[in-house]
Amino acid sequence: MNNQEKRSLPEGAIELDHAINRIQAWNALSPDQQAVLVQNKIAFTVDDIDFSALCNSPDAVGMRIYFGLNTPPGQQWDVSLLLVGIDARGRDLINYSSLQPHYVFDFTRPCPSTCDCSSVLMEGLCSE
Predict the structure, then answer these.
(1) Poorest-confidence range of 2-6, 47-51, 59-63?
(2) Can you give the pLDDT at residue 75?
(3) CA 7 from centre of chain
(4) CA 119, CA 72: separation in Å to the nearest integer?
(5) Phi and psi (nearest 5°) for 21?
(6) Is residue 34 a contact partner of residue 71, using CB atoms and an 8 Å limit?
(7) Beta partners for 66?
(8) Above 80 in pLDDT, residue 37?
(9) How far apart, in whole angstroms, are the C-alpha atoms of residue 111 and residue 128?
């Protein structure tokens, strides 16, 4: 699993052990705890360059999005979305050590804080 240390990760990719820990931490929460963490989230922002990098990954025909629990040092827990490419059989494409690697990405930013309050989809949800 430490093969990922031999190469630098592309922008937005996270170390595999961090991805596993975040997903396991999310799944260890009770449904009530999960609900509290997502109750104030309206949307998530994914930058186009990162989205394209994932979609253009070799063998990827789509992506899967996992909930993760991010706990930055000195900050409160926050939900994040972890994205992986999937192959034609619907299997996660995760391989940090091959010549054509497939990574787990976390380039999501939750809304509030990245909301477009002028969007019709946000009507009545933002205080401008």
Answers:
(1) 2-6
(2) 67
(3) 21
(4) 30
(5) -60, -40
(6) no
(7) 82
(8) yes
(9) 14
